[in-house]
Amino acid sequence: MTDEQVETVETVEELPVDELAAVTRERDEYLDALQRLKADFDNYRKRAARDQSDLVARATERLVKELVPVLDDLERALEAATQHEEAALEDGVRLVHRALAAALQREGLVEVAVDGLFDPHTQEALLSQPSEEAEGTVLQVVQKGYSLGDRVLRPARVIVSAGDGGADG
């Protein structure tokens, strides 16, 4: 072989080794970047879970702080009941009711409206009875319903008119 041929053979042999090293280095860089990305995502997921649990704890703490004075008022009402002061007991219970209602309203609790016709989205019909009112009219509220934001927490339980109260049958 001539020197030129030997040089060409060495160059041909070197290229694949250099390419292999370059591809291996590129693979290692991608693998390292992927591992870093995976670690970053795991850290993000853990941080998001921790933030969520902190948010729930703060919300619970805020609600409990709102309800502690109501508990105090209820204890005072019970003390009045042991002394048989009926007027004081009634006032104490009214005070507890107002305080609890105000605390829940501050949290966004709203009473479900029951005016007029029955609404199956916010009301639950317990009974349908004949009446002079038009069919589907709410006659009586058995239990109030409440919503929080756009969600119904508890539907209002109502008695609904079946209509035809004056019909002979």
Structure characterization notes:
The protein has 169 residues and is α+β, with helices and mostly antiparallel strands. The protein folds into 2 domains: 1-107, Hemagglutinin Ectodomain, Chain B; 110-169, Roll (Nucleotide Exchange Factor Grpe, Chain A, domain 2), CATH 2.30.22.10. The chain is 60% helix and 17% strand. The chain is built from 2 helices and 6 strands. The protein has helices at residues 3-82, 86-106; strands spanning 109-111, 123-129, 138-143, 146-148, 151-154, 156-161. The strands form 2 sheets. The chain has a 3-stranded antiparallel β-sheet with strand order 1-4-5. A 3-stranded mixed β-sheet has the order 2-6-3, with no helix packed on it. Strand 4 and strand 5 (151-154) form a beta hairpin. Helix 1 runs antiparallel to helix 2. The protein is elongated, with a radius of gyration of 37 Å. The model has no long low-confidence stretch (mean pLDDT 82).
Give a brief rundown of this model.
The protein has helices at residues 3-82, 86-106; strands at residues 109-111, 123-129, 138-143, 146-148, 151-154, 156-161.
- Uncertain runs are none
**Could you name the CATH topology of the largest domain?**
Hemagglutinin Ectodomain, Chain B
Given this structure, which CATH class of the largest domain is correct?
A: Alpha Beta
For the record, the CATH architecture of the largest domain stands as: Alpha-Beta Complex
Gyration radius from CA atoms, angstroms: 37 Å
Quickly count the domains. Answer: 2
Taking the alpha carbons of the first and last residues, their distance comes to 122 Å
Q: Describe the sheet with the most strands.
A: 3 strands, antiparallel
- Average pLDDT works out at 82
Number of strands: 6
H/I helix tally? 2
Tell me the fraction of residues in β-strands, as a range. 15-25%
Question: Secondary-structure element sequence?
Answer: HHEEEEEE
Share of residues in helices: 55-70%
The rough form would be described as elongated
Q: In order across it, which strands form the biggest sheet?
A: 1-4-5
Secondary-structure class? alpha+beta
